[in-house]
Amino acid sequence: MTADAAPPVPASRWPRWLPRERRRMIWRFLIALVVQVFFLFPVYWLFITSIKSAGDIFARPPVWFPGEPNFRIFGVLFKDGDVWAIYNSLIIASISTVVAMILGTAAAYSLARFKTGGQNLAIWIISQRMIPPIVIVFPIFLLFVWFGWIDSYVGLILLYIAFNLPYVIWMMRGYIEDIPVEVEESALTDGCSRWQALRKIVFPMARTGIFATAVFTFIFAWNEFVFALILTRHDVLTFPVLVTHYYGAQSTFWSKIAALSVLGTLPVFFAVATLQRFLVRGITMGAVKG
Amino acid sequence: MAGVRLRGVHKRFGKVHAVRGVDIEIPDRAFTVLVGPSGCGKSTLLRMIAGLEEVTEGTVEIDGAVVNDVRPKDRDVAMVFQNYALYPHMSVFENVAFGLRMRGTAGAEVRPRVEKAAAMLGIMDLLERQPRQLSGGQRQRVAMGRALVRDAKLYLFDEPLSNLDAQLRDEMRTEIKRLHQEMQRTMIYVTHDQVEAMTLADRIVLLREGEIEQEGPPLELYERPATRFVAGFIGSPAMNFAPAELEAADGAVQVRVGETVLALPPGRAERLGGDGGRAVLFGIRPEHMYRAEGEAPRPDCARLDTTVEIVEPMGANTLVNFHLGETSMLVRLDGSAAERPGNALPLDVDMSRAVLVDPESERVI
Questions:
Q1: Residue A263 half-sphere exposure, CB side, CA atoms within 13 Å?
Q2: Whether residue A65 is found in the same domain as residue A84
Q3: Does A182 contact B at CB distance below 8 Å?
Q4: ipTM score of complex
């Protein structure tokens, strides 16, 4: 090719009148749409399965939207008392999240600001999170039998606190370390005690991190299955465990599975939707030179 | 308002001995600058006075009372930090008012006081903004406002201007000096910039490796440095140093640098009387050498014939590089001087202001 040969101009697949920015936006929109459909379709399918009649669930070709929505199965779940499982999950996940957040944030503050235990303690704490639950389920089962905690709120709440603490500590340590220590020191010289500095300066600045960590901790506890399956019988069955009771050797209650799953999704959905406004980034902007 | 006294203060961070037995007495209403290179312990000293760092050994007194175990909030000090440390979730007004509110200032009194401080610092129109909406200079003013709004015993500044650009730094420096003159409060200011130290301080404490190298009024450190380190640190451009030898000749004492001989004025020569044949470091500031005029050197001066090597015009002054023996030296001449590299440049060296340093002890003779 000679040096002055102009490269061939590729023929545009788009009309010339469409500006480049607009074309780029259309592409982005289309990609976003595909991603949304990919993630939202299972949720949609779950919901419509819960309102389909038994015949529609197994129909071929599939019924994309039931002609007559049937909410009867939700009534059955309430009448049979199955929704208690969601109440149990709510109690256990909420209390364990609140306690894990309080203890974990305090520990994280100590690790971040006073370097308690040096770097090794922090690493050791997060390593606890990496133990596969199945490895320790048997000793914990024996321990719970001994304490009389099988099938009790206390047992599962304590266990979820213990399991979520490393995660909370690790996450909150990072968020607290991101807050310039001078801002806190400035509060101390401005007349705050250490606790006041935490309450008035550190917590508001770490708000994003606190809510994000709390949401994830809640979801971990909400979804936990292995321990809940082994450590509960009937009094404090959690929602993921109860769903499995609808699978049977002879029959599987798909509509019940779908309906309970829909009900089980709602608290998490509302929790995230409510807290979303706190999950905005950039709250620490402007504190220091930047 | 209060004086501050440090007695035998040490600070260790594990194996690092950051502050080594510092004794300082800061009088009431004085503007004291702690200056020194990075790692000399100046910020650590300030933080110990604020109560943000524990004292390993020794005592810190504010207003006559030992405060080693007193929490920062109870020491009644106001502090400005190097990186501003504003509260990002509060408006500028709330930032400035925070210290007042924490100390229980009556609600009706807060706004007038914040507005007074804001007016002093020219940030009245920024009060409703958030810190992230401010430029670096504006943030620094807010940080100052937050300290100055308080009626504190003691005002501490930890390199408050080092993040600002040169022009803003000069402006703020003047501002701080004016505020001190108006407020008449005890202020302790940490910087590594000797120009800031010289211009602001009533009294400079020059630190090196955790110890006080010299303290005194700025001009005393400039005119009568105690050590080579002080002589080199204070003054800009820095003092020139060249290895030399003292020689006794006809009852006078002269300094030999390589092949060049510079006679000391009679007064100084008498004080150094018996020191002929002694190795020294010869130090002279760039501003204490002048372009020679006429046949005879100026009073107390020695004539030095040099050749111009590098010329750095700076407007008001021109800096000229030349060699004395093996050593590269700098002279500050008038801005109108039209020197060219390679030209001869006869200089009168003011030997009454020359510094002679003992090379072993590094102390000025």
A1: 28
A2: no
A3: yes
A4: 0.85
